[in-house]
Amino acid sequence: MAAESPWIAALVAVFLWWFSTGAILWRVRAADNAGPEAHRASVVWGLGALGLGLAGARLSFDLGSAAGVYLGFVSALAVWGWIELAFLSGLLTGPNARPCPPGLRGWPRFARAVGTIAWHELALAMTTLALVHAARGAVNPFAAWTFAMLFLARISAKLNLFFGVPRINTEFLPRTLAHLPSHFRIAPMNGFFPVSVTILAFAAACWLERAFASGVAWEVAGFVLLLTITLLALLEHWFMVLPVPDQKLWRWMMPAPRPALMRRERLQEDPNGS
After folding, report:
1. Domain coordinates of the chain in residue numbers?
2. What is the pLDDT of residues 136-164, one digit of tens each?
3. Which of 227, 234, 236 has the alpha carbon at shortest distance from 10?
4. What angle do CA 196, 90, 188 make, to 5 degrees?
């Protein structure tokens, strides 16, 4: 069957990564242009995707087939996408919504950085644990593995942004998260980066080995889906250090910011214009 082809699985994973990322960024930019109420509306409207994602993941655990694998993969992306939308909309961030004071170092800076994303990371961690627990003994645990792999890559990326990397793309950050880049650090390299890319490369090698070792076609498709998103996560890590304009993948589909809204927000923050 075509759906069981590893090449089809790889292409599906790449397309869904690109399309889902672009869809979230587009909606966040559109809501940014419309104002805070639009951000809240986005998250509420997205609850349907969250519910379908959770239901689809649960259903996929009992489906030992290519359809079950793709259902689990898409469901995990739907749940992940809603949590990311809630974060980018400024509704699921953390207790700290202020810029990092200049010159802050060490544990105080780390604590402030964690405070900017604490509720979001907690939601991801709890969802990961819930899915992994629900998938225990399941015929098809790929939904849980997909979400866990995304969570591992997310933590790794955020740590690298905190420790410092040469390139940080903040072009698509909404105004709701304008304080976030102050907690990032531009640096030639950090000691954690080689560790993080090695871990991701090892994970990719494990998925590749499982794909070759499995004699079941639908399982091969599942492992190739995992392999592909792991390689994409590895690529996103290298985008942090290589001069590659990755933002061009989605910039063409983004609505332009509304200058009038930006001016109005600045006047609200500083009525004297100072």
Report:
1. 2-264
2. 999 999 999 999 999 999 999 999 999 99
3. 227
4. 30
